[in-house]
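Human
Can I borrow your eye for a moment on a structure tokenisation matter? Give me a protein, with the fold worked out from its sequence. Write it directly below this note and I will take it from there.

Assistant
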Amino acid sequence: MKAWEATVRKTQAVARKRANSIFGTTYVASSDDDDKDDQSGSDTIELYHAERVLPNGDYYKGEWVDNFPHGKGKYLWTDGCMYVGDWYKGKTMGKGRFTWPSGPTYEGEFKGGYMDGTGTYIASNGDTYKGQWVMNLKHGQGLKSFANGDRYEGEWRRGLQDGLGKYQWKDENYYVGEWRNGSIWGKGTFVWTNGNRYDGYWEDGVPKGSGTFKWPDGSFYVGNWSKDPRDQSGTYYPAGSSQEGHLEWDPQQIFNDLSEYQICPGEKVSILPSQKRLAVWRSTKGGDAKPRRMSVDGRVSVGLEKPSDRMQLWGGGDGDFSGDRTPNGGGALDEEFLGLHIGGANSRGNQLQTLKAPRKSKRQGETICKGHKNYELMLNLQLGIRHSVGRPAPSASFDLKPSAFDSKEKVWTRFPPEGSKYTPPHPSCEFRWKDYCPVVFRKLFKVDAADYMLSICGNDALRELSSPGKSGSFFYLTNDDRYMIKTMKKAEAKALLRMLPAYYNHFRAFENSLVTKFYGLHCVKLTGPTQKKVRFIIMGNLFCSEYTIHRRFDLKGSSLGRITIKPESEITATTILKDLDLNFIFRLQRSWFQDFCRQIDRDCELLEQEGIMDYSLLVGIHFKDISQEGDIIPSASGQHTPSGDSESEGTPHISRADMDQLLLDPSRWASIKLGVNMPARVERTVRRNGCELQLVGEPIGEFYEVVLFFGVIDILQDYDISKKLEHAYKSIQYDPTSISAVDPRQYSRRFRDFIFRIFSEDS
């Protein structure tokens, strides 16, 4: 006990000595006696008032605690930026005012260094936004008044208009309705001051789809709208009192009128509050005091730090250690009593092996060239798709007739080698081709027909994956990796066709659905005595990206057989790991995590209603920091502060410099969608000894900056008689809750429970 007390007193003395050496006699002890306990429960925080010009030229005046601004204070940077308001352990937290030298100001709430909460931003050109913010971005309800007289009031998402809102131009014409990514998109109404109005659907700022244009005299035009006159169609209905009306009116005139009404772009800020650095010091054993720079969100700008380097900055005790060396003597004790090791997590982490990036493997799949056993089948598939995609596109309306979903129309196209009136000659054997519900699939996702045909039917051959899946299906990849083609069983094709109306309506309602995107369902019937049928489904490839996928996980929430029987040395970038291989918790920024939870619930409800089970969440991880030796490097921002809280309490840790670059240009968010290119963090976990079947390990506080890709796959398995028998048989031998084959309702509940345990909000 005496040794413990001596260590605490020693740590306190070092902290006071450091503060006095920095600010000298300009500090006056605060009269506020509300001392706060540190995590150790014994270390007392002393509050000072300071006014000083710092060595790098910055100026600070206000309250100071343990080497950082804490309380009320004013900080002026050498470039002219200034913050006045609340601080919490070196981070802007609470209410404050941030001013840029070029004139813009923000006054409102801050959280972890970010403009976060409710606040007002006035740009240098006079634009004013008043409303809600998340991580320096307008997010939630808000009102923006533009300098030119325009104004928008409604919902914002990640810096852009998104949701329901009203935009009024300076001439008092206005639009009220749905928005997407800063553009008029969805259902809405445009009203002119002369009384004219358009009610209907929009896309990218112009009418697209069904809509009605009305005149003040009561006459109106109803039709299908498109910027391309060839797709424009509709009917004019004159008012009862007028038989002439507007018969000479051209529907294309509305597009000319709307071209004058543009949405004002937002102002781009040169630097964000979260990027501003504070001048802080680091005491060493030799007495040298070297200035360090720390951002107002708690990040230290010394490049990529090692964990021990991070701890020395905060600890400030005895022991001069750098690199990977472990502090000794009093330094180690100081860290222990200051709470740098939470629950032994870091000590456990030190015993773990360093994560390694998987060894590079050659390009996935075997190219199907002449002489391959499936070469003719590939030619048949490409010929059929050229034939299907080359036909005229259906009308632009999204409202499909029930007949569009009828798969019983037996329309087979014959492809003789010599060609026919409708098909070209080809070097393959004769076959027949069927395209199931083509109108539905072509309307479902907006894919350019030429790009689609080029990907699948271009000069480059398809690639067959080295081994078929567990179901016995074969998988093929296009040369550009955009699409995956899978052979299907008849039962799977029936399941898809049965659920197609619900699937179509689901994607119309929730465009960010995580469910697999299907682009077409086809069948090739080979001629000859066997009359063999081969059914194909074309899907989007979830991992088509410029990023290398270092880890792939197929996650169901069950434990029986859910482990990869491979040594670490044999795991490559294409190895699919399973539930019991998972050693991470995925941490998403708050708004993304909320979107993720809502979408998982919606997708699981769809699959449960359609009687589907045995689906899984496919997750791909790209690690951003990898050494030349192939070691995956933890992020310094994941280390704990002496207070025992995470390094930036309430601050979303999406990345370091990359996150700030994204925030500088909100339009770049368009490339980041739910499940695609998502910056995030993962926290490493370990399973307790003797608990190999523990689904979710214990987090150890070791974080990694990553880019995530994920989606729900394998959604065509009914809970049929074979699955019911499998459930009955395995339930006798194993725990019924551990097996994959359970009824759709139980499967959905277990799947969601598991997913919400391994994904969490980054706070």
